[in-house]
Design a protein that fits this description.
single chain; about 160 residues; mainly alpha; two-stranded antiparallel sheet
Length: about 160
């Protein structure tokens, strides 16, 4: 957890030195919020120390799929509002969260392929992260072009 705080601070500082305050803040919040959301969503398996033994954190919100979906979606919408995203980005946020529904409400034996092939889950997560980054980059770039064309940031 301390590593996440240090990494978020480093990302923010690098962004500030590059004079990209909004980008620095967004990346730092994204980095730090990841561990906070992991603690909220995961079963108690997140270690505080890089050791096999020791305290473990996790509130197991994933055990309550409807609440899990609501919290995840609400967090994304709050971030969208704070950072002034456009309508396209909001639509994407909602779609990407809806795509997660089969993982949040799995049918019986839905995870059998993942158990048989442990590399599948990290691969699916990696592909989703890359698709999300591409989507956010595209709509973030589009917002920047609009700001430059109009001469002022959107309200």
């Amino acid at each position: 957890m301390l590593t996440s705080v240090l990494l978020a601070s480093l990302i923010w500082a690098l962004g500030k030195t590059a004079r990209r305050s909004n980008l620095a803040a967004a990346l730092a919040v994204g980095t730090l919020s990841h561990i906070v959301l992991d603690i909220i969503h995961h079963e108690p398996n997140i270690s505080l120390l890089p050791l096999q033994w020791g305290p473990r954190l996790g509130l197991n919100l994933q055990g309550y799929p409807v609440l899990d979906l609501f919290v995840e979606l609400a967090f994304c919408i709050v971030c969208w509002a704070v950072f002034g995203g456009g309508k396209g980005l909001l639509a994407g946020i909602i779609v990407f969260n809806l795509i997660n529904i089969p993982l949040m409400f799995p049918s019986e034996n839905a995870f059998a392929p993942i158990i048989a092939h442990p590399f599948l889950l990290p691969t699916v997560i990696l592909l989703q992260v890359l698709a999300t980054w591409l989507f956010v980059w595209w709509f973030g770039r589009h917002t920047v072009f609009l700001e430059e064309a109009v001469g002022a940031p959107p309200p």
